[in-house]
Fold Formylglycine-generating sulfatase enzyme domain protein.
Amino acid sequence: MPTADVGTKAPGVYGLYDMAGNSWEWTADWYSPSFKVCGDACRGKNPKGPCGGKGSCPGYSKKVLKSGSWWWPASYARGSKRRAHIPENFPEYHHFGFRCAKDADN
């Protein structure tokens, strides 16, 4: 996949640059194969995943990665793209990153 220098593409609708496709973004969320299991109880809620996003979660070993990376096909370079990954799998980290985030006030 061809790469581009940071900040050379147009910003998105919120005026932010380079929000997808540079690196898979680690999240604090535990991965569950189906969000549908929660049903209507999850509608409109921040999806912290099983165990409320706590540091350890019995029965779960994978965290959510989002937004694709330069290492993957261009079709993965979108904010809604998700995949599961085992945090201890260090050799694959060359195309992983993270973003600092803050809860929004209501």
Q: What stands out?
A: The chain has a mean pLDDT of 75.
